[in-house]
Amino acid sequence: QVQLLESGGGLVRAGDSLRLSCKGSGGLFSTYAVGWFRRAPGKEHEFVAAVSSDRISQSYGDAGEGRFTISRDNALKTVYLQMSSVKPEDTAEYSCAAGRIMSPWLSEYQYWGQGTQVTVSS
C-alpha cells in the first residue's frame, strides 16, 4: 500500500512558476512509476507528466509539454512537478498517482493522492 500526499498548490499569477510535490509513504515508493494528472472544473482528467521508478524516463502530455518538468528524489520519496510560465488555463486540481508502469492512462495507476489546487490569475 502506498499513500500519496500532494502539496505546493496555490494562487499564482500568469507567468509565475510553481513547484508541486508528491510525497509517498507506506510502501516501496521507489519501485513505482508516478504520474501527474489534472482536472479542471467541468472537464475530464488530463495527463500532465509521468516519471519512471528509476528516474530515467519521463513523458509529457500536451498539458505538460514544454513548460513543466517532472522529477523525483527516491531518497526523499518525493516526485516534483515544476511548472513554469503558468497560464490561466493551467487552473485545475493536480493529483499524483503511483503505478507499476509509466502511463498516460488513469486506469494504469493503483494509488492516488488527494490533490492540490492550482489557480492561475490573469
Throw out a few tags for this protein:
single chain, 122 residues, mainly beta, seven-stranded mixed beta sheet, four-stranded antiparallel beta sheet
Describe what is shown at a glance:
The protein is built from no helices and eleven strands. The protein is mainly β and 122 residues long.
Description:
The protein is mainly beta and 122 residues long. It contains no helices and eleven strands. The strands form two sheets. Strands 2, 4, 5, 6, 9, 10 and 11 form a seven-stranded mixed β-sheet that branches. A four-stranded antiparallel β-sheet has the order 1-3-8-7, with no helix packed on it. The mean pLDDT is 96.
Indicate the topology.
Blueprint (H helix, E strand, L loop, with lengths): L2 E5 L2 E4 L4 E8 L7 E7 L6 E6 L6 E3 L7 E6 L4 E6 L8 E8 L11 E2 L3 E6 L1
Parallel strand pairs: 2-11
Antiparallel strand pairs: 1-3, 3-8, 4-5, 4-9, 5-6, 7-8, 9-10, 9-11
Q: Level of helix content? A: under 10%
The coarse silhouette is globular
Question: How many H/I helical runs?
Answer: 0
Main sheet, how many strands, which sense, barrel?
A: 7 strands, mixed
Say how many strands there are: 11
H-E order: EEEEEEEEEEE
The percentage of residues in β strands lies in: over 45%
* Residue runs with pLDDT of under 50 for 5 or more positions: none
Backbone CA Rg: 13 Å
What would you call the structural class? mainly beta
**Which quaternary structure do these chains form?**
single chain
